[in-house]
Amino acid sequence: MQQLGKAVQAAVNEPKVKQKLLQLGLEPAGTTPEAFSKFVQDETGRVSTLVRARNIRVD
Predict the structure, then answer these.
(1) How does pLDDT run across 25-53, given as a tens digit for each residue?
(2) Which of 17, 29, 36, 50 is 20 to 30 A from 42, alpha carbon to alpha carbon?
(3) What string of H, E and C letters represents the secondary structure of 2-54?
């Protein structure tokens, strides 16, 4: 997993890749697998709370 993380981080730091990600509205950020996992968990909790509070349903 660390080898994949390093490869992704190297790709994200390439100027052409970074520029394309920005054009797509993404924020390129190199991070560790552990930090990314925490980010995903935090975002999942935040969005879940919003979905429940707004009673959002998928049709």
Answers:
(1) 998 877 787 888 899 999 999 999 999 99
(2) 17
(3) HHHHHHHHHHHCCHHHHHHHHHCCCCCCCCCHHHHHHHHHHHHHHHHHHHHHH
